[in-house]
Write the structure tokens for this entry.
Amino acid sequence: MNQTPLFDLLEVRGPDALAFLQAQLAADLNSLADAGWCWSALLNAQGRVLHVLGVWRVAANHWRLLVPFARGEELAEALRRMVFRRKVQLQIDGKVTLGVCAEGIDTGVGGLLVGLVERVDARAIGNDVLDRLIADGLALIDAAASGRHLVQSLRLDRFDAFSVKKGCYPGQEIVARTHFLGRNKRHLVQLDAASAVTWKSADAVADAATQVGEIACAGQCHALAVLTEPVAVGTRLHVGDGDTWATVSAAPEFTL
């Protein structure tokens, strides 16, 4: 039985599509060529990440937003509130999703090549691929983690998912201030469990009895956590309210 697809497809079309998305999303889209791909984010006014998404340029007047965790309609509604007089249309395509394709577009993460496939296609990307993305340090944000972390805390700079140089977008002032003043005091680490465990985003992460952060993105055996202080690779941390323990296996904060 096929699992639920990880990504929703939101089509953005119209003569103002590029200008509209450039003003809403954190990445600089102006340099993206036709058939190009990048990762980006939608932030709130406080600079906190609401969505991390794939952005696929078909043409200047046609873009595809790949939105994880069945949050496509949520993102569409948020963007529709900002359309105003822009000549742009937003529509969810419920028949297709992102799939692993041998000769597809390079996402720049985990060697993952993608294309559009039917949602029932065996190639459709599901939650099992999260571990592959997490291993490369990419934190996709679900509803529980939405609005909790700065782009710098998630190290989205490693994927050029935000810009401190382009014009205004929601949260841009906070992003720029944090960047130029060095005010980010959070640290991103990868956690590995011995086998598949039950954990979720926003679960507390503790060193002994002291909370030191929380899960930002949880896969089956791997997770990314945002911590309030650096910890060494190999450190064992307690996750959530149960008996789940995980080991810090990598710290993109310090390795790249």
The chain has two domains: 7-181, 187-255.
